[in-house]
Design goal:
single chain, 225 residues, mainly alpha, two-stranded antiparallel sheet, transmembrane
């Protein structure tokens, strides 16, 4: 029996995709994480403020993580966190393999590639450790607070979980990545400014996070208010 005859006999079949928004938030979470990790390879100096390029998007990773935990629960958010962790490790390995592969004749950007995407064990370790610890604590604490507040006081669990998660993430990443490279007051400045900035951004974006969560809850038929 030919392939076409087989299709006609059994019918062409596809798996059904659900109407849940969960996959979209999972994809956004992983994408924002990978972009932020690449941006974090550059230190940025704005006047007295020292931070890294990850400051532009990385706080959004926590906001998306908050949406996942608030709507789908800690177990569902944890799956996405582990997926993001796996993608970050895969990206680091891939960049390393590209880095050590022989460059083609006429391609003169090896040093430029290494300076931006080159495998730096210390940065990679800092990134994956800070992310995993910070995100798990953020998600766990949000779910824990929700157990007490139920559907009330969303702002308490959003800000409270960010304070805990970002603190752990910032300390772990900054210490592993740049302790000894940035020293003294500059290192303290780097840690404090990064932490305060990321936490304040969560507060500033509450007018965006609130309606986003409300919208997702309305669109999820299995969510019970």
């Amino acid at each position: 029996m030919s392939i076409n005859e087989t299709k006609e006999a059994v019918g062409v079949r596809y798996a059904k995709s659900t109407q849940s928004l969960y996959p979209f938030f999972a994809a956004a979470f992983c994408g924002l994480l990978l972009i932020s990790n690449i941006g974090a390879t550059k230190l940025i100096h704005f006047g007295p403020i020292i931070t890294d390029g990850g400051a532009f998007l990385f706080p959004l990773v926590y906001i998306v993580g908050d949406v996942l935990t608030e709507v789908y629960g800690f177990k569902a958010a944890r799956k996405v966190i582990f997926m993001g962790f796996a993608m970050a490790v895969l990206a680091a390995i891939t960049f390393y393999l590209v880095q050590i592969s022989p460059a083609a004749d006429g391609w003169e950007n090896q040093s430029a590639f290494e300076s931006i995407l080159g495998f730096v064990p210390r940065i990679v370790l800092a990134s994956v450790c800070g992310f995993l610890i910070g995100q798990l604590l953020n998600s766990w604490s949000l779910a824990l607070i929700k157990g007490y507040t139920k559907e009330r006081k969303l702002w308490v669990r959003l800000i409270g979980s960010t304070v805990i998660g970002e603190l752990a993430d910032t300390i772990v990443f900054c210490t592993i990545a740049f302790y000894g490279i940035i020293t003294g007051k500059d290192f303290l400045n780097y840690v404090v400014v990064g932490y305060v900035y990321k936490t304040l951004l969560e507060v500033i974006l509450l007018p965006v996070t609130y309606p986003t969560i409300a919208y997702v809850k309305r669109k999820e038929p299995t969510y019970i208010s």
